[in-house]
Design brief:
Layout: H1 8-30, H2 36-58, H3 65-91, H4 94-100, H5 104-116, H6 122-143, H7 152-175, H8 181-202, H9 209-233, H10 238-242, H11 248-260, H12 266-283
Length: 286
């Protein structure tokens, strides 16, 4: 595990967030149609295929027993993250689901300190505080919406996703000291698929051809996104990169409007302004 002073990890992590947001929008199309067990299983069928293909072509590493054990543990966390998130986007508007997961950077900084002993700098604390304030503003606006009921399950799923995602990213940085980026991504996808297979078979409903294309594209986007994130997290502090997750709000707002006709409210835009300011403060060089 090493730390770079350049801007490269930040840029690559930002690209990874963008790719994963495109995958999220695609998965929101199919998540309400199929059971969460089948959605997660098919996502990782495609993910395991593309990740394994990339590993076989580009990697010369042969994972040992210790590597398999480490990545199996992280795959459980990855699977919990996906299950929570796909549940959230099936029940909530895309912008709302993504916004609620913005607690992940706070969890990343705290877990990065607890697990990796990474320091939490003053600017990071200010950025986290502003980011959380933005989330609170958006949540207040959504809570005052009387046009739909308050979804407790969707809310709990989004918050669970934030915690498990933060934990998976911190573990990724910890594992990068012993496993290559390609190994981490490939084994995480393969183990997640194997763990999700029983639920997928049990709740199986034959997907339509267009939906199969969406699942395949999601697997490719997820693999590329996680390769970017794994590379970045092996070279920069988890707490610092975690703040880039706030940029997902902009992507969610764009996809939500143009694909799902979700119009952001004034509260949402005000919260977004605070979130962008948080990113600028936390990532701005002295």
């Amino acid at each position: 595990m090493r730390t770079e002073a350049s801007i490269r990890p930040v840029l690559v992590a930002g690209l990874g967030v963008a790719l994963l947001c495109i995958m999220d929008a695609a998965m929101k199309v199919v998540s309400p149609v199929y059971s969460v067990g089948e959605v997660v299983g098919l996502r990782y069928v495609a993910g395991a295929f593309f990740a394994s293909l990339t590993f076989l072509v580009l990697s010369r590493e042969k994972p040992g027993l210790d590597s398999l054990r480490r990545n199996l543990m992280r795959a459980v966390i990855v699977l919990l993250t996906a299950t929570c998130f796909f549940t959230a986007i099936a029940r909530l508007p895309l912008v709302e689901a993504v916004t609620l997961t913005f607690l992940a950077p706070l969890f990343m900084s705290l877990l990065g300190y607890a697990i990796l002993r990474e320091p939490i700098g003053p600017r990071t604390l200010v950025g986290i505080g502003l980011g959380l304030a933005g989330v609170a503003v958006i949540a207040h606006g959504q809570g005052s919406d009387t046009s739909r009921p308050f979804d407790v399950i969707g809310l709990a799923a989004a918050l669970g996703c934030a915690f498990f995602y933060a934990l998976s990213m911190v573990l990724m940085r910890q594992q990068s000291a012993k496993d290559s980026t390609l190994t981490i991504v490939a084994l995480s996808n393969i183990f997640a698929f194997l763990l999700a297979m029983p639920a997928m078979i049990w709740f199986w409903q034959t997907p339509t051809p267009p939906h199969l294309i969406i699942f395949a594209a999601s697997g490719l986007l997820g693999t590329l996104g996680h390769l970017c994130m794994a590379w970045a997290y092996s070279r920069a502090h988890a707490g610092k990169l975690g703040l880039l997750e706030y940029s997902a709000f902009v992507w969610a707002m764009i996809f939500g409007y143009f694909i799902f006709a979700e119009v952001p409210t004034t509260w949402t835009l005000a919260g977004a302004a605070l979130i962008v300011l948080a990113c600028l403060i936390a990532l701005m060089r002295r």
